[in-house]
Each structure stands twice: as structure tokens, then as C-alpha cells.
Amino acid sequence: MSLVRSGGLLGTDELETVVTAAELDPEERALLENLVEQARVGELAVRSPIAGRGADVYQYELTVERGQRRDDVVISQSAVPENLRPLLRWLERRDRDR
């Protein structure tokens, strides 16, 4: 799984992170799988890119690979649905804690 966050205030707060199942302990892996399921990433990928409005907003590029399936989501911060927010926060926090 990878997340690229670009944009934001003056475009200076970019983030790029990659998480693999192999680097996670079983509890973290289960949590991540649950967040991906709750986010319904596959449904979002069908509609992606999802635009939104606003100056200085982030754009998220999320890639989730599970077996042979790959889902790519491109979404503006102002269009992020509530069910996707916990996954994005988890990925941002994980990157910050590294």
C-alpha cells in the first residue's frame, strides 16, 4: 500500500509512504485490513479521480494491492468521504512516527 499526499498550504507539506504487510505485526496488519475494508477502497477506485474545491487542499493518491488486485484512488482533501479518513490518518501517523 502506498500513499502520496501533495498540495496543502503552498505545497510544502508533501508526504510519501509505503506500507507492506510483511513489516507489520499481526495486530497492526489486522487493523490495516479493517481500515481498508471500512474505507471501501475498491468502490472509490471505480470513481477516482474525485475532485473537490478549495485552495491549499491536499490531494491524496492511494494505492492498495491485495493479491492480484490493485486499486488506485486519487481524491482531493475536500472530497474525502468519512469512511476513508481513518485509513488516511493511520497512514499519515505511521509515516510521521517513522
Categorize the overall geometry: globular
Distance between the termini: 16 Å
Described by strand count, sense and barrel closure, the largest sheet is: 4 strands, antiparallel
Percent range for helical residues?
Answer: 25-40%
Task: Label this structure with key terms.
single chain, four-stranded antiparallel β-sheet, 98 residues, alpha+beta
Task: Please describe what this structure looks like.
With 98 residues, the protein is an alpha+beta fold. The protein has one domain (2-97). It has 3 helices and 4 strands, in the order ββααββα. Strands 2-1-3-4 form a 4-stranded antiparallel sheet. Strand 1 and strand 2 (15-18) form a beta hairpin. Helix 1 (26-39) packs antiparallel against helix 3 (85-97). The longest helix has 14 residues, at 26-39. It is globular and about 40 Å long.
SSE diagram, text form:
Layout (H helix, E strand, L loop, with lengths): L1 E6 L7 E4 L7 H14 L1 H7 L10 E9 L2 E8 L8 H13 L1
Antiparallel strand pairs: 1-2, 1-3, 3-4
